[in-house]
TrEMBL record:
It holds the Pfam family Cytochrom_C. It comes from Sulfurimonas marina. Residues 1-79 form the Cytochrome c domain. Keywords: Heme, Iron, Metal-binding. This is C-type cytochrome.
Length: 79
């Protein structure tokens, strides 16, 4: 599973290296551990995590498998 390829869906809002606050509202994800990213992903899916971007992120990751989320989290942790 290529987390870098999956991250292509995220670049427009989060930046090439996770350096941007998505739409000026989210946290900057660069520097997050894979565990922190997975916690956020699971929270988005459950509807229990996130502020202004909660709904957007829930729909963005809704169709990702657990394996894809893990690969994406690992990629983000290395940005």
């Amino acid at each position: 599973m290529d987390g870098g390829a999956l991250f292509g869906k995220c670049v427009a809002c989060h930046g090439q290296n996770g350096e941007k606050a998505a739409l000026g509202k989210s946290q900057i994800i660069k520097g997050w551990s894979s565990a922190k990213v997975m916690e956020a992903f699971h929270g988005y899916k459950a509807g229990t995590y996130g502020g202004a971007m909660k709904g957007v992120m829930k729909s963005q990751i809704a169709n990702f498998s657990e394996e894809e989320l893990k690969a994406l989290a690992e990629h983000i942790s290395k940005l």
